[in-house]
Amino acid sequence: MLLFLLFGFSISIQAFDRYTPETYPDSSLQPLSCGQPRPSFLCDPNDFLSRTNNTGRVDKLSTSLIEVRGKTKCSCSAADEIQCIDSSNGFTMSIALVPKFKLNDDEYTQANLLRAAELFADSLRDRYDRDQCDDDILIVYSTNDSIIWTSVGDVASRYLYRTVIDQVQKQAGKSPFFSLVNLIV
């Protein structure tokens, strides 16, 4: 019986090592599952940021993500399907950290990791539904894969061009995660 419990426990831990967009926690609804003391736009369920002993920078990052929403204005235009719901809120930028993307061992190539990151980020951004008119941005960072992907809604992409995102992702891939944090903060 004890062996069964230990075996079952190790499987449940491993199952959460590789999240899917459906199993990844929502930092607005489940802040504690995301390593946050209160609702946030930052989710780090495996405490990667806490292990780096940069609590002050993590707090500043979380605050900066909230400030982006408060300091920008709604960018929905008359041509957009949905209009501004709350004109006091602008772009919503979120960050999700995952330990590793869920791929089979024989699928771990750079191209497959980038595709997995893209699909994960787009699906999670859609699931989070934090936009007013597709004016949201979600950055996903896989800590073990060293892959960063940015999913941008259509309205947000009018202001944040894919070429800029690609340059930041390329540079961030060469640097520690906190280099990316410094770009945001």
From TrEMBL:
<feature type="signal peptide">
    <location>
        <begin position="1"/>
        <end position="15"/>
    </location>
</feature>
<protein>
    <recommendedName>
        <fullName>TPM domain-containing protein</fullName>
    </recommendedName>
</protein>
<keyword id="KW-0732">Signal</keyword>
<dbReference type="GO" id="GO:0005892">
    <property type="term" value="C:acetylcholine-gated channel complex"/>
</dbReference>
<dbReference type="InterPro" id="IPR033438">
    <property type="entry name" value="MOLO1"/>
</dbReference>
<dbReference type="Pfam" id="PF17175">
    <property type="entry name" value="MOLO1"/>
</dbReference>
